[in-house]
Amino acid sequence: MNALNTLHSLVRRHLPWLERLGVAGGFTLLLAQLFSASPVYPLYWDTVLLVGVFLLLTLRPVIGYFALLAAALYPLGEISIYLAVLVLAIALLGQHWFIPNLGLVLLVLGTPFLNGIYLAWVVPMLGGLWWGPAAGLLAGLFGALWGKILFGLIGLSPDWVTLAGLYPDLAPTLLRFDGLTSWQVLELLAAPFLVNSTSTLYHLLQISIWAFIGWLIGRLSLEDQIQYNRPRSTLALVIAGVLALGSFQFLLSAWIGSADPTQALLDNLLPNALLALFAASLAETLLFFLEYPWRAPISTLTASAAPHPLPRGQETAHSSPSHLASVEPSASPQNKLEKDKEDPLIMIELD
């Protein structure tokens, strides 16, 4: 038990570094996917670049962000300079928000690849649960949009109801941009959404559902009652979010979708829901386990029932019982009457 306590304390002390390692590893894997799809670097240079980007993202995230961008622009520019310029513009315009939230950015960019293992639904869940309502909304919005764009470029129907278990192949996708003008690049990116007006409405509503669920999870996670009862309450919140996301998409598909909703429910929605529920619950439980001590010190244990802990950052002086010691009990009516009788002025009035 002492060894477990020591290990747990060690992990808690270095939790920010573990988060950096995870984020750096995720971005390195995405960059390796791009290098594999567009092998423009000389032999062994790609390995050196991947190791360098990983180390910089771990040790100096700001420098690592721009190193990652620079390493990705060359293979993109070899295919289409306009695509590279578009990526560069997005990365530079959003750098002040992207760099402090690299974990969330990784979650969004990894949405299509998580879909290959039925985990795309964790993006709005964890985005709202860990980063708050605004970040949950953006994670759901851009995660759904990015996945639709990438699978649409491959030639698949960009409907999340029918995409479960599919993994994107970047090589043929990037080749579609070869030789295109700037306007043609934008047209190609928007083409999956412009088949007809009904299809456009369907995709917009589906993206809105993802964004709404991410916002709702984030908003409810801030409630005091949810924070008091972590992780049980947050696990219940994840269950409710998965059920809501699956139900809304099923109803939307039954209304104006092109896929058979019953078949989609059995083949896609249920596997997505079950695996996303398992993964999000496991991640939240693990985070809670790592954020808090293994067990409370003996000196803090009391015979009386302990009050519920307040959410982080909301502790006040009223949460401590010490302020009660300065409060004197109210005087009883009998004591007050005896005191009045001893007061000379009152005695004169009575005579």
Tell me what the structure shows.
- This protein has 351 residues and is mainly alpha-helical.
- It folds into two domains: 103 residues, no CATH class; 184 residues, no CATH class.
- The chain is built from 18 helices and no strands.
- α10 runs antiparallel to α13.
- The longest helix has 31 residues.
- The radius of gyration is 28 Å and the shape is globular.
Judging from the principal axes of the Cα atoms, what is the shape? globular
* SSE pattern: HHHHHHHHHHHHHHHHHH
**Overall mean pLDDT:** 83
Biggest β-sheet description: none
Percent of residues in helices comes to: over 70%
How big a fraction of the residues is strand?
Answer: under 5%
Q: Distance N terminus to C terminus?
A: 78 Å
Short description:
With 351 residues, the protein is an all-alpha fold. It has 18 helices and no strands.
List the helices and strands and how they pair.
Blueprint (H helix, E strand, L loop, with lengths): L1 H12 L1 H23 L7 H15 L1 H19 L1 H13 L1 H4 L3 H8 L1 H5 L6 H10 L1 H22 L15 H6 L6 H9 L6 H25 L2 H5 L3 H25 L4 H31 L41 H10 L1 H7 L1
Helix pairs in contact: 2-3, 2-4, 2-7, 3-4, 4-5, 7-10, 9-10, 9-13, 9-16, 10-13, 13-15, 15-16
